[in-house]
Amino acid sequence: MEGRHFRCGSLQSSTSDEDLVEVGDGGTLDFSLAGDVPPLDQEMAPGFPSYAGNGFDEIGRMRDFLEEPLPGVGTYEDFNTIDWVREKSRDRDRHREITNRSKESTFALIHSISDAFSGWLLMLLIGLSAGALAGLIDISTRWLTDLKEGVCLNGFWYNHEHCCWNSRNITFQDRDKCPEWQTWAELLTRKKNGGALAYSLNYFIYAAWALLFSLLAVLLVRGFAPYACGSGIPEIKTILSGFIIRGYLGKWTLLVKTVTLVLAVASGLSLGKEGPLVHVACCCGNILCHLFTKYRKNEAKRREVLSAAAAAGVSVAFGAPIGGVLFSLEEVSYYFPLKTLWRSFFAALVAAFTLRSINPFGNSRLVLFYVEFHAPWHLLELAPFVLLGVFGGLWGAAFIRANIAWCRRRKTTRLGRYPVAEVLVVTAATAVLAFPNQYTRMSTSELISELFNDCGRLDSSQLCDYVRNGTPGEGGGPDRLAGPRVQSAMWQLALALALKGVITVFTFGMKVPSGLFIPSMAVGAIVGRLLGVGMEQLALHHPDWVLFEGWCQPGADCITPGLYAMVGAAACLGGVTRMTVSLVVIMFELTGGLEYIVPLMAATVTSKWVADAAAGRQGIYDSHIRLNGYPFLEAKEEFTHKTLAADAMRPRRPADPPLTALPQDAMTLGDVEGVLGSTGYSGYPVVLSRESQRLVGFVLRRDLLISIENARQTQEGIVTSSMVSFSDHSPPLPPNSPPILNLRPILDLSPFTVTDHTPMEIVVDIFRKLGLRQCLVTHNGKLLGIITKKDVLKHIAQLANQDPDSILFN
């Protein structure tokens, strides 16, 4: 009888997974052992299943129903991290299968070609959609911004500039004062110069429109798409690192963000549309991914698409395709292979071409503040350029500290319960303080365009109202002496600097779409213009000073204040975001001049050094990631502590709750469901037995739940007392027992493991470079604990004397 028991055990243990497949209708597949010699002894132990060459009987058959993947198996729950290694492995298997099939038939070859081309087609669609939406946003924003001040009699849908284009009743100097455009006071009172009454009426209507636009924006965000608020770049960085935030890149978010971005910018708040355009482009990329199977079903491939979409977003925001690609590589992307670089470049190119075709600003340029400078800069001007970099770094560090402190207060106090009231209060304060000053009343993009402007003799701007007593070379005295209007403009710019610098702290982070690129550039451009005009007047009045002697002739236009404004804008933006290479390229593409790269590089590098020294290496987006508790592992920071894996794993101490592990062949379905019900972990290690604790593999909670639910619904005989097996061998069953549920196909047989003595520096590098969700800790092959991505972040925070419990999704 012992021999019979042995033969039964050996027969069952030699059965492969293929011999354990069950069809969904409850029947069995006929696995006749064709070509094999049948067992000599057909007699089995009483009560044990007999083998007749046609499969096991109904009682002893193992239930391996996962030969074909179930819907949902291998997917991820909300607010979880993807498994980069598994996703890339799946894509390689899919690509290998398509390549092998392409040799079998013409149809398979065509399918292989279409699969390879689908990525480029997707980039084309992303570029077209991002460019079209950016053009729509630009046109709508300009119209609504001008609507606060007046209306066009020829058609209310025309903005101020378009309204006056076809007018024949204006001169070049008064090209913005055509009779077809009337302010609200002129329209209501029928008087051209209404005095104080007209000013008060325009003041009131300006503030009313601003409040209406901001109210609509915050109500739409709060009611239909809460994820449409803010810049979106911190969340996109987190998503690209592998985190799942369902709905953040969905169609409702895209629709509401597009509409509310127009309303928020038009309201006059100190914010920009450039950062949110990255979010809009990524929404387009995520939605279009559903048209292609290989991107819809693979989270890692989808993130490659989102990296390219981010490049397209910056391309249409600044008219800088190359800068967009570098921005995606430097600032937001976590995984950026070479093919993603090529596709990002193509998507950015298509997006820029689409926006250029729409021509939203009517100047054949992609941005409103495109400039061209003609006067060269001198080496001695590097000193003021570096000084602008110092200011940009100090202002960036101060802004980040103030904004994070305010946002933390919003999260931890009652202030966060009233987002609508907060938006209305900030909008009212901005409108009331901005209207009296022409440089704060105009849109921030127009302000930057005005500050970047290189004054010509036909410019009617107040900043260009110089007293010209002669022409260079004729000995008639200084050519660009600052007149009374220029001096008045300097005071107004100083007041605008104070308002922009303070109000932006309270604006960024409110429950409306809000970008930070344009407000930061405006602050730097104002400081740069002030410094540039000061340097210009010094050169005119004191040409014999050492700073100007030898290169600045009396009466010559040696200093370009617009260049100083551009360098200051780059310095402040670099101080806030800590961008370097991509920022210089973006500013270079804005100006179109290679000779100004060195001043931009000097100011940008200086601002980053100063900001890093003053407030650490984290820019505004990384600071908001930490504030919100996103599980983002920054690749730029170095881990310098001498700790081991045993110091970060769970459990660490004997008093900690023991690690929940599943034995591969010793649990019933009820036991597994009990573990799932009593714990909330994302996955469970599988061990050989509770006694040995030898590691077998790792199984995800979501896969377990889906597989068990499917088995109960579709498989006959699966009950609570059914044994659950994670092995490829069928354990012996007692008589009249329910069938075994085989879950080995959902088991990861090669989980990443480290020993308890592995330095945490290596563990952190593994998590960064491989994008792991978890790593198991062993000692001589025996399971000791587990390290998740959040455990690594909490360990880093604890070593930095920060609250480790802040690493949560808030």
UniProtKB/TrEMBL annotation:
Membrane topology of this protein: Multi-pass membrane protein
Pfam family membership, one: Voltage_CLC
Transmembrane segments: 117-137, 203-228, 277-293, 305-329, 379-398, 418-435, 489-510, 516-535
GO BP terms in the entry: renal system process
Keywords tagged on the record: CBS domain, Chloride, Endosome, Ion transport, Membrane, Transmembrane, Transmembrane helix, Transport
Signal peptide range in chain numbering: none
Protein name per the record: Chloride channel protein
Gene name of this polypeptide: CLCN5
